[in-house]
Design a protein that fits this description.
Helix 9 runs parallel beside helix 15 and helix 11 runs antiparallel to helix 14. 58% of the residues lie in helices and 10% in strands. By secondary structure, it is an alpha/beta fold. The protein has a 5-stranded parallel β-sheet, sandwiched between helices. Strands 6-7 form a two-stranded antiparallel sheet.
Length: 327
């Protein structure tokens, strides 16, 4: 619960839904500190009826505070925009107006009026890249007064990182069900069989030239019905990162990360994986994965149909990577 009093005007800006929901909850909690019986009214742009804002902002016969939450202002029609402008210009007593705006220029007049009116701006920036998600995991765990190893945070993102809400839920489970600093082994205990985690394990073993381990992992997930496409995607990404980092020289990870649009820990990981590789062998490994990518997607190459055996194509790519690393 927030200890900071809520202002009468609040703008929640950005597309990340879970962060936006938390921001709105914080505002409601702040108002509830002063008035436990606060009424929360949610209005949606897609179903807005002209005059609704003014009606809900009017004083109640029974008094009490009201939080008016307007969702999706970026999809609002002119009527909602005008009603919002009117309420912002003449705020009602005991009413906290929360405007939710994902992105774009629609409703810009309202946003400008909110900012010039001293509204509290709460950011809900998109969490898209792997680095952003790792940072999100670390912060989630820290908020719960726990610590997670950086490698464990990375492993968790690779296991469940497609959806930020699921990632937050995974953090809660690990905090609840473990003790001490959350480690890689903790993550693997709960999420070790997820597709993304297994894909990166296969790639790591292949890049290290550990053919037996790479094939063991690959066949295990194939038996489990894993689609070969994400495995090939991970192999391609890891090989590209190794090549880019190796070509970037010996500058600091932070400097290389900035130039390549990567996180410093990704640079360090790729730098470790590049040991034992040279340009020609890395190039042949990348070509092998590119050829496998065509096959697993059932495509055509040079006008000639390729064999449509995705499982065999992935195995051949992994074997080629191991062979080139050990050549």
């Amino acid at each position: 619960m927030s200890a900071t009093p809520a202002p009468s005007l609040v703008l929640v800006s950005g597309p990340e839904e879970i962060l936006a929901e938390r921001a709105v909850d914080d505002v409601v909690a702040a108002v509830r500190q002063d008035d436990p019986e606060v009424e929360v009214v949610r209005l949606y742009a897609s179903a807005y009826v002209p005059g609704d804002l003014g009606m809900h902002a009017s004083p109640s016969l029974f008094g009490g505070a009201t939080v008016l939450v307007v969702h999706d202002l970026d999809e609002a029609d002119d009527t909602l925009i005008e009603d919002a402008m009117q309420l912002i210009s003449a705020p009602a007593d005991d009413v906290t107006l929360v405007i939710r705006h994902k992105s774009g220029n629609r409703g810009k007049r309202v946003l400008d009026a909110l900012r010039s009116g001293g509204a509290r701006v709460m950011e809900a920036k998109a969490i898209k890249s792997e680095g952003d998600k790792v940072g999100f995991v670390v912060k989630e765990v820290q908020t719960a007064r726990r610590r997670i190893e950086r490698e464990a945070a990375t492993a968790l993102v690779r296991a469940v990182g497609k959806d930020v809400r699921e990632l937050a839920s995974a953090c809660s489970q690990l905090v609840r069900d473990t003790s001490g600093a959350i480690s890689v082994s903790d993550v693997e205990t709960y999420y070790g069989e997820r597709v993304e985690t297994t894909g990166f394990k296969v790639a790591a073993a292949a890049l290290a030239g550990d053919q037996a381990e790479a094939m063991r992992l690959l066949r295990h997930v194939m038996i489990g019905g894993l689609d070969p496409v994400p495995i090939i995607a991970v192999l391609a990404m890891q090989l590209r990162q190794v090549g880019r980092v190796a070509a970037a020289g010996r500058a600091s990870p932070a400097s290389i990360a900035k130039d390549l649009g990567m996180a410093p820990w990704q640079v360090e990981q790729a730098r470790r994986a590049s040991q034992g590789w040279d340009g020609p062998r890395l190039g042949r490994a990348i070509e092998a994965v590119a050829a496998a990518d065509v096959e697993v997607k059932g495509g055509l190459r040079s006008g000639t149909a390729v064999a449509r055996s995705p499982e065999y194509a992935v195995e051949r790519a992994v074997l080629t990577i191991c062979a080139e690393r050990n050549r």
